[in-house]
Each structure stands twice: as structure tokens, then as C-alpha cells.
Design a protein that fits this description.
- The complex is a heterodimer of chains A (219) and B (172).
- Chain A has 2 domains: 24-109; 113-209, no CATH class.
- In chain A, 79% of the residues lie in helices and 2% in strands.
- Chain A is built from 6 helices and 1 strand; from the N terminus they run αβααααα.
- Chain B is mainly α and 172 residues long.
- Chain B has one domain.
- Chain B has helices spanning 3-23, 29-46, 56-78, 86-95, 106-116, 120-130, 135-142, 146-171, and one strand at residues 96-99.
- The radius of gyration of chain B is 16 Å and the shape is globular.
- The relative contact order of chain B is 0.13.
- The chains are: A mainly alpha (219), B mainly alpha (172).
- At the A-B interface, helix 1, strand 1, helix 2, helix 4 and helix 6 of A face helix 1, helix 2, helix 3, helix 4 and strand 1 of B.
């Protein structure tokens, strides 16, 4: 039994017909498939537009609230405090939205038309636990969130927890609290990665090694 | 030529090749059809990215191979094979139906069973070899050197021959 002798035989294998259930082109398999693909593209586009619209409306609402506090800080002496709280919420929201949208875009951009070597490299990057850019984005984002929320909320929280009008203690305690929360978040993200993505990542690495090792054998 | 026409023409020309390549990755006929459908979906989704820098055939083979490798990775993780992932895949699988018009001959089934036992990249190379691609074309699909392809193919053929003979004797 030789593989070369089997070559011509394999050419007799024909692909199954692909059709779509309940399609108006049910008798024309390829056309019904094209119709379905187009319809699904439209659906996907609609969902993307809806998500974009939601983000824009939410941003506008936050900005509106912020601008309102700027224009009318209120008659009491807490006006500036409210401005800082709203301001920090808006900035944190915008920051999180940017990171989220960038992450979704990155995941959605899988190019299947590239050579296998490149496909594996990109897959390895996608499934790796935190790329360098992720580290920079996470740590930078965390720092920004800590700074903004501490500045925005420390005076309010200081009074809420009975520390009085001097927020110095809260400037220390609140960042500590946020760092602990972030550490838990990091731990559970890592656990999830270990469970869901690490096996896949290891397989990809093995395939890359396989590709590289055969290359080295030749050299 | 519209996008739909291009796709239809592409499918008419390459569908059998794509399906045969799927045979090298998936043993189960039902799951193989799922893999085949997933490749068709990816061809549609990537249609705009074809820039003519490579030949259309090479482009189709890359998408087929990358899709099958991606599905293999997920299959190995989930221990269940080849349901297209994601919302689009789920929706399409629900509504698509494939009708297999032919059964694969017994000796070919044996060959594919042996191919299915190979490591993923060896399956890729042999699936391209069976489609009669030149060494240069195979090297382009994988982005490795032609010399590397030749060495690998030689090794895989020897491994496969041994495996097929072993299975054949066991069969009798």
C-alpha cells in the first residue's frame, strides 16, 4: 500500500452538497449558502452598530452629568467634590470602554488566510497569558483608575467611614483596597486562563516547535 | 464580478479539494461535514482579504489548513470535535445541512485513519501532498523552506506506509 498509488483514488472523493434548511434557494445549495452568509453578515453588522450606539449613548450620558455638575456645582460646599466624583467616573468609564473595544477587536481579527507559520504565531499570541501590551495596558489602566478614583472619592469616603473632613487616611486605604481587588482579579484571570486557554496555548507551542524543529533538521 | 459570484465560482472549483483535506483532519463523517462548513464560512469571511499576492489556490489551502488546525486545537481541548465556535458558527450549523453523496472506499478510509493518527502538522503536509501540490506550493502554504517540505514529506510517507501496512495486516 503506497501513498502515491492512493493519490489518484482520493480524487474520486466529492464534497457533500451544502444547503440551508427552509431557504428560498433550497434547491440551489451554493446560492442558499451565500444567502445565509450574507444574512449572517448583516446580523453581525447590526449587533456591532447596536453595541457602538450603546457605548456612545452611555458616554454622552456620563459626560452630560459631568458637565451639569460643572455648570451647577450646587449651593452646598460639596460641589467641587461632586465634580471630582463625576469626573473620575467619566474618565474611568472612557478608559474601560477603550480597553474593552480594543480587546474585542483584537480577538475578532483572526486572519485565516495567512501562512500556517504566521497563523500559529498569531494564535500563540492570542492565547498567551498577558502579552507585553496587556501588561502595560493593565498596569497603566490600574494606576489611572486608582489615581482617578482616589482623587475623586477619597473626601466622600473619608466622611462616609467616619474619618472626618481630612481625607489623608483614605488616600492610603482606598488605593490599598483597590490593589487587593485588582490582585484577586488577576489571580482569578490567571486561574481561568490555566483552565480554559493554557492547554490550547501549549498545543500551539508544540506545533510551533514541530515546525521549527523540522526546519532545524534540514539546516 | 460580485462578491457572491466570486464565492460561488471559488466553491465550485475548490469544494472537493477542501472536503478531501478535511478528511485528513477528522475521521467522523458528521464532524467532518462540520469542519467543511466552517471552512466555507471562513472563505466567505476572508474573501475581501484576498489581494492576489498569492494564487487563489494557495489562499484557499491556507484557509482550509488554518481552519482545520484551529478546530483540531479546540477539539483536543474539549475532547469533542469540531463544532464551529462562536455565535456565527452556531447559527450556521443549525441551519446548514450537508448531504454526503458518496461513501469513501475502504482502503481510503484506512489511509485516512492512519493520517488522522499523525501529528497535526504532518496531517497538513500530507493533505497538501495528496492534492498534488508542488513542493513550492506546500512551502508557501506553510511558510517553510522547500527543502524542509521535502524532508518532512519523505518521513511522513514512510511513517504512513508503515502504519497502513500494520493496520492492513491487523485487518486481515
Amino acid at each position: 500500500m503506497d501513498i502515491d498509488n492512493m493519490k489518484s483514488k482520493t480524487m474520486r472523493i466529492k464534497a457533500p452538497e451544502v444547503g440551508v434548511r427552509n431557504s428560498e434557494h433550497a434547491g440551489e445549495p451554493t446560492q442558499s449558502l451565500v444567502d445565509l452568509l450574507k444574512a449572517t453578515d448583516q446580523q453581525h453588522l447590526k449587533k456591532t452598530r447596536q453595541a457602538r450606539m450603546f457605548i456612545m449613548i452611555a458616554t454622552a450620558a456620563f459626560l452630560f452629568a459631568f458637565v451639569m455638575t460643572l455648570l451647577d456645582p450646587g449651593s452646598d460646599d460639596r460641589g467641587r467634590e461632586r465634580q471630582m466624583m463625576y469626573g473620575s467616573i467619566v474618565l474611568v468609564y472612557v478608559l474601560v470602554s477603550i480597553v474593552y473595544v480594543a480587546g474585542v477587536r483584537k480577538l475578532a481579527r483572526v486572519d485565516h488566510a495567512v501562512p500556517v507559520r504566521q497563523f500559529l504565531q498569531e494564535a500563540e499570541r492570542r492565547y498567551r497569558f498577558m502579552q507585553r501590551s496587556d501588561w502595560m495596558l493593565s498596569l497603566g489602566g490600574l494606576l489611572a483608575v486608582i489615581l482617578l478614583t482616589t482623587i475623586g472619592y477619597a473626601p466622600y469616603l473619608s466622611r462616609l467611614f467616619g474619618f472626618g473632613d481630612d481625607p489623608t487616611a483614605m488616600y492610603i486605604l482606598f488605593p490599598c483596597f483597590l490593589i487587593i481587588v485588582a490582585a484577586f482579579g488577576f489571580y482569578f484571570t490567571w486561574k481561568n486562563w490555566q483552565r480554559d486557554r493554557a492547554p490550547l496555548w501549549r498545543q500551539i507551542r508544540e506545533m510551533q516547535d514541530e515546525l521549527e524543529s523540522s526546519w532545524n533538521d534540514v539546516r | 464580478m460580485t462578491r457572491e459570484n466570486t464565492y460561488t465560482a471559488l466553491l465550485e472549483e475548490h469544494r472537493d479539494r477542501i472536503y478531501r483535506m478535511c478528511c485528513c483532519y477528522v475521521r467522523d463523517p458528521e464532524l467532518r461535514k462540520d469542519a467543511f462548513q466552517q471552512v466555507l464560512i471562513h472563505l466567505w469571511q476572508n474573501l475581501d482579504s484576498f489581494e492576489g499576492r498569492s494564487q487563489l489556490g494557495t489562499w484557499v489551502y491556507r484557509i482550509t489548513v488554518n481552519t482545520c488546525l484551529g478546530l483540531l486545537q479546540k477539539e483536543q481541548r474539549r475532547q469533542r470535535v469540531f463544532l464551529p465556535s462562536g455565535e456565527l458558527g452556531d447559527q450556521l450549523t443549525e441551519r446548514l445541512q450537508t448531504e454526503e453523496s458518496n461513501d469513501i472506499e475502504e482502503d481510503l478510509q484506512l489511509m485516512y485513519a492512519c493520517i488522522n493518527d499523525l501529528p497535526p502538522l504532518d496531517r497538513t503536509l500530507i493533505s497538501l501532498y495528496l492534492e498534488d501540490l508542488s513542493t513550492k506550493e506546500m512551502a508557501e502554504v506553510l511558510d517553510i523552506s522547500e527543502a524542509n517540505v521535502r524532508v518532512k514529506i519523505h518521513r511522513i510517507k514512510a511513517t504512513l506506509k508503515e502504519a497502513m501496512e500494520g493496520k492492513n495486516h491487523g485487518h486481515r
